[in-house]
Structure prediction request, 364 residues.
Amino acid sequence: MLQDGTVHVHEPDATPTRTRLIVDVDTGIDDALALLYLVASPDAEIAAALCTAGNVPVDQVTVNTLSWLEVCGRPDIEVAAGSQLPLVAPLMTTEDTHGPQGVGYAELPPPSRSRSARSAAEAWVELTREQPGELTGLVTGPLTNLALALRIDPDLPLRLHRLVIMGGCFHHPGNTTPTSEWNVAVDPEAAKVVFDAFSIVPPERRPIVCPLDVTESIEMYPEHVSRIAEIVGLAPSGELSPDAPRGTRSTAEAPLVRHITDALRFYMEFHRDQGIGFLAHVHDPFAAAVALGAVPYTTRPATVDVELDGRLTRGTTVADRSGMWKRAPNADIVAGTRPAEFFDHFVERVGSYIRDLNLPPSKN
Ligand code: BDR
Ligand code: CA
Prediction:
């Protein structure tokens, strides 16, 4: 069962097919960018946005997701809330990274509608029963909701077209402990439940895992936001310059440009405080683009498990690439991409969506 060295190359689909998604988020600055990107994608259809406690508590995640989808022009998308807590661990949140409300300095209007009557776990189960084999799951937060859904229905993996996860790190330092990535570290038990449960799917449907090893190469700079603003038709503002005072707010006329500028300023200041530079790792939009098959990437198969007991290593994802555990691969781990191509695609898609959203009705 030697798997080492097997690299699969995925190029963007020349004729993209429509991808229908269940998106599970802990919104979160980069989750918000992922949702905007999907809303802006003609080849994506979001069946539901499910909310998990993570970057901020689940009630705040749910409010953020409701508000954000409304600002993005999609108040029709179902938003369901998940568990207040991880399966076993006490909840940790990271307002330092994502701001007091989870969206940096952005001030979103309160949502004008309510969350779904069903829970996130129920939505996972019911949607995959209604549309077996049709839906791609995209999880950009902790895996709590999906793990709870698997408790209700262990056959769920067989009804999902594909699962794409932003999570884990393998040959790369962690961002939460020296060896663990945030989404897994928040709820390690849930991550283990998911990796174990998806061992039953055939190789062509193995979960695609986007780890920090690759997502930290997805570095968003102020220049990318300027390019979006330019496509929208706004004059250069310099509001996101690293030299502008900390906390400088955008005055852009287009609400979405204003909100992403304010959210990203907070995220970039956080990265600068960490010694990384005035940039932001936008992990979740990259995972969204992988889910659509819209960016180039390579994968390597592996058997993935999660350390639950280590005194220093709890929450660490471990990949067996050589069959040492004598267990079949249960994941395709993304090993590389071309970040500049991702950003060209992302900037164009998001910029033209915001431009068209802002056109007066007569020009639409
Ligand atoms: C992940 O952690 C969160 O803070 C981000 O939203 C992303 O999903 C990166 O480790
Ligand atoms: Ca996230």
In short: Residues 8-218+282-338 form a domain with the Inosine-uridine Nucleoside N-ribohydrolase; Chain A fold (CATH 3.90.245.10).
